[in-house]
Amino acid sequence: MKTPVNLIVFALFVLCCCPPLAMAHKVTIFAYFEKDTLYSESYFSNGAPVIAASVTVTDAQGKELAQGKTDAGGRCNFPLPAPKSDLHLTLDASMGHGASFVLKMDEMTAPAVSLPGTPDKAGVAAGAVTAVAASGANEVDACSAMADDLRQIKRDLAKLQQRLDEPGLGQIFAGIGYILGLCGAAALVAARKK
């Protein structure tokens, strides 16, 4: 009877140790479209860039539009005409590591920025442009700075989404409880057979 108990304990140990190992190499790809160029960034769960990985861009119908490799920073850019549908990016980082990202059509259309003094639905952005323009700075530089800030916010949101997709402590304990429950049920069935 000791052999099955030892086997169950060993199996539980292996199951508890494997998920962190699997998550260590998860990859993420993020993309945005700006001025006839599709920009993509890829990184591992620890933040390291994915280097020399294949990135394929397809439209909503599956037609391949572009293909390339990530650089030392995990970036891969594609000059593309204005897309007419959602774009699907697929990252193949070899050895089974891969990720995909869908860039929705509404995320690719740039919002119109109002000139100073004109009303705008996005009052915060228009107010920032107005404030910078009123201080004597160039409006183009202000818009460029805002676009850079927006790109950084999008990167941060993609990283946050990746963290939210990872299993939490509650899910891990629930999984362990589920496994222990199955082991208990198996032990009960084995005890009744005797």
How does this model look, in words?
With 194 residues, this protein is of the alpha+beta class. The protein folds into 3 domains: 2-22 and 170-193, no CATH class; 27-110, Macroglobulin (MG2) domain (Immunoglobulin-like); 111-165, no CATH class. The protein has 5 helices and 7 strands; from the N terminus they run αβββββββαααα. It has helices at 2-23, 105-108, 123-134, 139-165, 169-193; strands spanning 27-34, 37-44, 54-59, 64-69, 75-79, 87-92, 98-103. The strands form 2 sheets. A 4-stranded antiparallel beta sheet has the order 4-3-6-7. A hairpin with a 5-residue loop joins strand 6 (87-92) and strand 7. The longest helix has 27 residues, at 139-165. The model is unreliable at 20-24 and 111-134 (pLDDT under 50).
Strand order of the largest sheet: 4-3-6-7
CATH architecture tag of the largest domain:
Sandwich
Task: Please provide the ordered H/E string of secondary-structure elements.
Answer: HEEEEEEEHHHH
Show unreliable segments: 20-24, 111-134
Query: Could you name the CATH homologous superfamily of the largest domain?
Result: Macroglobulin (MG2) domain
Radius of gyration: 25 Å
Question: Which percent range describes the beta-strand content?
Answer: 15-25%
Q: Figure out the total of helices.
A: 5
The biggest beta sheet reads: 4 strands, antiparallel
Percentage of helical residues?
40-55%
The gross shape turns out to be: elongated
Count of distinct strands:
7
